[in-house]
């Protein structure tokens, strides 16, 4: 603010006096251009500190999550409005990555002219796109991706917890990918060859095998067949990963489906030797019978088998209960 003599203090807070007497155009707020730049950097830093998740690395991590979700949507029955909403958010995240990166560079001392050269813009265009409060407003308005993680692997939103069904689906997608990788390792198949035979892009095959995307059952069936496995063994993993409602088989086939699920869990665990999963109280022959469907153990024993394979029991409950019910009905009818 100027006094009666037209003198004022520099707007950057340095304490220097400037002449703001009328005449010669717009009154000056800064001692010179370097002081103006210093004040802008200070404002940028304050804005950046006020907005959580300002790091462009953090926003990039969320962008990857949304891209994974969009990739999975392309192979599922997600309606058009869902695909368009995801696409819109990805575009917004991409713009936020650029805005956050520019803000970080400004706080580190880079000038607008340097940023303009890096962006292939004029200095005025760079200022208009990323300058001032505009960046903070854009970043504070964006909606974080659900269950996003920081680049260091810690939870970005510690107060949010993934619902149990979503957690099971995520775990099953990872297990499905591990099972496919076990088959690929045994088959010694390359990504390019496997992708060509399956009629898929190589990157898509890689994402499926890494557990980053869940594709339709017909695609999983094809991949398993090409890798020399038995598609039925991975069906329960796929049903859980894709959140499909499983259709229970007829009673005579329940034990076979339960055993197939166990074989899928064993593949996801890297197909350990049978001796390493032989439970106390079970002979090796009885353990083999559990995995080929000739023997369905008690629930507690089944959970022990699954625990040894680092697999959750929840997806097996309905099959085991249906088999137990069918066995009880069979005894009563005789």
Describe this structure in words.
The protein has 334 residues and is an all-alpha fold. A two-stranded antiparallel ribbon has the order 1-2. A hairpin with a 7-residue loop joins strand 1 (7-9) and strand 2 (17-19). The protein starts with 6 loop residues before the first strand and ends with a helix. It is built from 15 helices and two strands. The longest helix is centred in the N-terminal third of the chain and has 28 residues, at 80-107. 60% of the residues lie in helices and 2% in strands.
What's a quick, concise take on this entry?
By secondary structure, the chain is mainly alpha-helical. It has 15 helices and two strands.
What's the layout of helices and strands?
Layout: E1 7-9, E2 17-19, H1 33-50, H2 56-74, H3 80-107, H4 112-119, H5 123-130, H6 133-141, H7 164-187, H8 191-198, H9 202-209, H10 217-226, H11 231-241, H12 254-268, H13 284-292, H14 299-308, H15 317-333
Antiparallel strand pairs: 1-2
Strand order within the widest beta sheet: 1-2
Oligomeric grouping of the chains = single chain
Number of strands: 2
Gyration radius over CA: 30 Å
Q: Label the overall shape.
A: elongated
Please report the number of helical segments: 15
Main sheet characteristics? 2 strands, antiparallel
Q: List unreliable stretches of 5+ residues.
A: 48-54, 147-160, 330-334
| H/E topology pattern | EEHHHHHHHHHHHHHHH
The percentage helix is 55-70%
Mean pLDDT: 79
Number of domains in the coordinates?
A: 3
The helix/strand class is mainly alpha
Taking the alpha carbons of the first and last residues, their distance comes to 100 Å
Please indicate the percent range of residues in DSSP E strands (runs of 2 or more).
under 5%
């Amino acid at each position: 603010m100027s006094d009666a003599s037209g003198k004022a203090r520099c707007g950057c807070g340095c304490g220097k006096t400037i002449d703001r007497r009328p005449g010669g155009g717009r009154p000056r707020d800064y001692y010179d251009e370097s002081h103006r730049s210093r004040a802008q950097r200070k404002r940028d830093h304050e804005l950046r500190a006020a907005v959580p998740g300002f790091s462009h690395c953090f926003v990039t991590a969320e962008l990857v999550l949304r891209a994974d979700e969009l990739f999975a949507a392309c192979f599922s029955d997600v309606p058009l409005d869902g695909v368009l909403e995801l696409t819109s958010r990805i575009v917004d995240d991409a713009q936020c990555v650029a805005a956050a990166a520019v803000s970080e560079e400004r706080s580190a001392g880079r000038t607008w002219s340097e940023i303009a050269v890096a962006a292939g813009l004029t200095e005025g265009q760079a200022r208009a796109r990323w300058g001032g409060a505009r960046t903070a407003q854009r970043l504070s308005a964006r909606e974080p991706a659900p269950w996003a993680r920081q680049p260091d692997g810690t939870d970005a939103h510690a107060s949010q917890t993934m619902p149990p069904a979503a957690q099971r689906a995520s775990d099953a997608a990872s297990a499905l990918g591990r099972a496919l990788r076990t088959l690929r390792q045994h088959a010694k198949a390359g990504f390019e060859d496997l992708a060509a035979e399956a009629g898929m892009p190589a990157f898509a095959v890689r994402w499926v095998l890494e557990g980053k995307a869940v594709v339709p059952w017909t695609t999983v069936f094809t991949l398993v067949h090409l890798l020399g496995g038995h598609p039925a063994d991975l069906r329960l993993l796929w049903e859980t990963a894709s959140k499909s409602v499983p259709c229970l088989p007829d009673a005579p086939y329940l034990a076979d489906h339960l055993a197939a699920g166990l074989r899928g869990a064993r593949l996801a665990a890297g197909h350990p030797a049978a001796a390493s999963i032989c439970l106390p109280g079970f002979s090796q022959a009885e353990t083999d019978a559990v995995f080929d469907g000739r023997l369905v153990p008690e629930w507690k024993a089944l959970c022990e088998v699954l625990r040894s394979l680092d697999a959750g029991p929840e997806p097996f409950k309905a099959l085991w209960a249906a088999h137990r019910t069918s066995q009880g009905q069979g005894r009563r009818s005789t």
